[in-house]
Write a structure and sequence with these properties.
Elements lengths: L6 H10 L3 H6 L4 H10 L13 H15 L8 H15 L2
Helix pairs in contact: 1-5
Length: 92
């Protein structure tokens, strides 16, 4: 669907768009940031990954490199994010 689009655009549409307003509204309050992460924990590798889309990409890519194997493991979101990295690498 987003093949050939920049990685940040793919991540936004697939993982951030639905909750972007909630994420943005939580940025001025540490308690709200933690609540956002807790309510969406299954979508992120870590609490830090929920702090910004760029950090989500960085944390997800780090996890992808560290655990890469022929089997995609983890949550549904981790599998989708791994798929984006694999298709990006294959298109290089």
């Amino acid at each position: 669907m987003f093949k050939g689009r920049p990685l940040i655009i793919q991540f936004y549409h697939l993982f951030w768009k639905e909750n972007y307003t909630k994420w943005k509204d939580s940025q001025d309050d540490e308690v709200a940031k933690r609540k956002f992460y807790t309510q969406n924990k299954d979508q992120f590798i870590s609490e830090y990954a929920s702090s910004h889309i760029a950090e989500d990409i960085a944390e997800s890519f780090t996890e992808f490199v560290l655990k890469h194997s022929n089997k995609v493991r983890g949550t549904r979101y981790e599998a989708q994010k791994d798929g984006i990295f694999l298709s990006t690498i294959q298109s290089l």
